Amino acid sequence: MNERGVSGEVRMLHSVVSLDYERPPTLPVREYAQAIRERRLIGHRCPQCGRIYTPPRGYCPVCVIPTSAADEVELPTTGTLVTYTVLNPDALHAQGGQSTCRGSVMLDGTAITIAGDLSGVSPADIHVGIRLRGVWGEATEADLVDPGWGAPGIKHWEPTGEPDVAGDEIQRMFAEAEAS
After folding, report:
1. pLDDT by residue (tens digit) across 86-133?
2. What was the pLDDT predicted at 163?
3. How far apart are CA 137 and CA 150, in angstroms?
4. Under a CB-based contact definition with an 8 Å cutoff, are residues 119 and 128 in contact?
5. pTM, rounded to two decimals
6. DSSP 19-47
7. CB atoms within 10 A of CB 37
8. Fewer C-beta within 10 Å: the chain N or C terminus?
9. Beta carbons within 10 angstroms of residue 131's beta carbon
10. Nearest to 139, CA basis, from 6, 16, 41
11. Is the pLDDT of residue 136 over 90?
């Protein structure tokens, strides 16, 4: 007997369990997918706190109140680079590969950041504050269900040619967006 008063041999059962979950798309998700097919980016603005969420969820996760098509807002596909990373190819796996730049783009007039691949910006020239625009590509149904990295339908982000945004201006944009 052990200290718990249990006697006998300890036995274990090993098994593999696999569960497949199917979540039927909600109305806001279907509306979002349709907007992406039309090359539009939409979100919902909470009628109570004013925060904007994309993709729309059908409710505000902060205020826990429902949102609907009446709360839909069209979002710009232009913004400012606020964070980035340079992915260098692994010499063992990607011989002859090139570095890839990825970043988070704060959409104009919002507190929303969308991640994605950056094109037309070299690793040597990348920096916070670059003005970017989303370049649309084809979104597959799988992209709409699981967008993975970034926004479905936006293939990559490229420079707009506009002047860079200064660091203190980026901080002001974040503060204003959070206050609204």
Report:
1. 988 765 565 567 788 999 999 998 888 999 999 999 899 999 999 999
2. 95
3. 13
4. no
5. 0.77
6. -----PPPHHHHHHHHHHHTT-EEEEE-T
7. 14
8. N
9. 17
10. 41
11. yes
